[in-house]
Amino acid sequence: MPSPNDRHHATERPQRRAMLVSVQLPDVPDAEVTISLDELEHLCKGLGLTVVHRLTQKRPNLTAALLLGGGKLHEAASWTGGTGEIHVGPRNKTHGGKKDKDDNELPEPTPEPRRADLVVVDTELVPGQQRNLERALGVEVLDRTGIILLVFEARARTREARLELELARLLYDTPRLRDDDSIADREGGGGGRGGRGHTNLELAKQRTRDRTAALRKELETVRATEDSRRARRTDQARVALVGYTNSGKSSLMRVLTGSEVYVQDALFATLGTTVRALQPETTPRILVADTVGFLRNLPHGLVASFRSTLEEAREAGLLLIVLDASDPEMPAHLAVTRQVLAEIGAGDIPVQLLLHKTDRVEPAALQQLSAQFPDALRTSTRDPDTMQALRQAIVDYFDSQMAAAQVDVPYAKLAMLGEIRAATRVLEETYHGEGVRLMLRAPASVLEKLRRTLR
Questions:
Q1: DSSP labels for 90-142?
Q2: Which of 205, 320, 340, 360 meets the CB 3.0–4.6 Å disulfide criterion with 326?
Q3: 387: burial class by Cβ within 10 Å (0-12, 13-18, 19+)?
Q4: For the ranges 176-180, 225-229, 292-296, which has the lowest average pLDDT?
């Protein structure tokens, strides 16, 4: 059976066959279970895994040592070649889980030919459950958090994202160190005469603590640099693209800014934040930020780790919520997006809904969506007219946030003219005996800062 430390190498083994397992709690409808499993399968496919079977069981809670009841556990084992049992206790008793009312009669624990070499559970497992399932099924077991971590690790490109990912991985793996038999042997030394020395497990934990501390320190340095860059953009108009993963944010980013950002039909194709100027450029410039996509049941620890991309959403003047109009689950995706925005403190920022990928929607269905979301803009990167309309809507919004003002710049401070022209929209310039009188439009914060500088 693979060591738990080998979990994050799953991407190196393409075409592995995975079985998905879901536990349905009493208050969860069947449709939600199916949607969540569909997402999990999409995540697995992004890692090169082939999903060969799905197994679902209704349970009152998620606290059982083996998560599944005995019958379902043996059904799962028939796909993995395991026995469906583990040995526990001082007398080597076998345990295969309690039989639930929806379980079949327990078959004989005869190993079957292996048809799946990986099991992915659509919930977050505690380390003991993960260890027990691996022993009973005879294959590697990953939970939802573990799969999302693998996807993040395959997608991260910026230094900050990679550091945040490594930290998230360490925090996820640390509780599982005690379950790794490969590091449990004892090393001598370190204890003095008669001392017991340190175990490999203790040393591994110490290395993990040291690396975690080093990562936190390095992240502080990187984040300080990013915060300085962000502070310099404080007075600039900023719009952030947010929404469900794979909704088309990055393709929109390419068209709006003319940048070569990474685009792929895959969950979490974008990690970290990309900030570019709206093209053609406006005066003053409008910055567009592409952010990491949201996902149903995204672990809070992972949301918290991607602080940089969420900062852009929190500090934007306008949020564009990108909705895949061709996805039947789009209303649920909107609910998830609004929930995450509220959780990160961006719930009060003005929002513009985008019904995106409208080229994939039948006219009648599109009319229904427009009636359901009357304030949403229809967009498609294949339709230049809709993209021009979106750009104009962005420009009009930020223009509406500007105020008109008259500013006198003395000759002694004429060097500021370049900075003023970049930060405001100058409508008129008049030279007089004491300097230059400007009629301009700009955000209130920019005008106030300008007046303080010119006093």
A1: TTTEEE--PPPTTPPPPPP-PPPPPS-SEEEESSPPPHHHHHHHHHHHSSEEE
A2: 360
A3: middle
A4: 176-180
